[in-house]
Amino acid sequence: MKIGYARVSSGEQNLDLQRDALTAAGCDMTYEDEGVSGVARRRPGLDQALAVMKQGDTLVTWRLDRLGRSLPHLIELVAALQDRGCGFVSLNEAIDTGSAGGKLVFHIMGALAEFERALIVERTRAGMTSARTRGRHLGRPRALTGAQLHKARDEIAADRETTASMATLLGVSRSTLWRALRDRSS
């Protein structure tokens, strides 16, 4: 029996393309995960698909990256399937682990997918480092502006306000104000 598995990682993505491909491939049933990252070890749809598989069944995915993103995890899943006497097919990459050539292609494609992901992470980190060196603030927006911090520093130094009262006036916690004053002064 052919058992399909489809996954999208965000709500904006659509499963229709994968459903159509799995139906055309002759899948008897299809399990899905929506809004679940490929990196996640626990995926309810995949867990259900694996639970119903018996010896001689084949797990079918539209693309290799729908099953998982890391090579070790992909190899672990396919090895577990093979131990149970089950096969794996990836439609887009034309991988069928039922043959020696399919197993070879699976390992090569898995390595390339992991390499691509590593490159993306590397480029992202390089971009973030570049932005930081140009003085860009990354992450959550700062709670206080420079003008607010300057005013707070002056009021506290002149003993017109306490740190707690100034934090209340600015609408932040005392620790946020202390941290911002410390970070901006260093």
What does this structure look like?
- The chain has a five-stranded mixed beta sheet, with helices on both faces.
- It folds into two domains: 2-118, Rossmann fold (3-Layer(aba) Sandwich); 146-185.
- The protein has helices at residues 16-24, 44-52, 64-67, 71-83, 100-133, 146-157, 163-170, 174-185, and strands at residues 2-8, 29-34, 58-61, 87-90, 95-96.
- The model has no long low-confidence stretch (mean pLDDT 88).
- It is built from eight helices and five strands; from the N terminus they run βαβαβααββαααα.
- By secondary structure, it is an alpha/beta fold.
- Structure summary, number of beta strands: 5
CATH architecture of the largest domain, by name, is 3-Layer(aba) Sandwich
CATH topology of the largest domain: Rossmann fold
Which descriptor suits the 3D outline?
elongated
How many separate domains make up the residues?
Answer: 2
**CATH class categorisation of the largest domain:** Alpha Beta
Secondary-structure-based class equals alpha/beta
* CATH superfamily caption of the largest domain: Resolvase, N-terminal catalytic domain
Percentage of residues assigned to helices = 40-55%
Sequence stretches where pLDDT stays below 50 over 5 or more residues: none
Strand content: 5-15%
Distance between the termini: 65 Å
- Number of continuous helical runs: 8
| Side-by-side strand order of the widest sheet | 2-1-3-4-5
The major β-sheet equals:
5 strands, mixed
How much is the average pLDDT?
88
What integer value in Å does the Rg equal?
Answer: 26 Å
Helix-strand pattern, N to C?
Answer: EHEHEHHEEHHHH
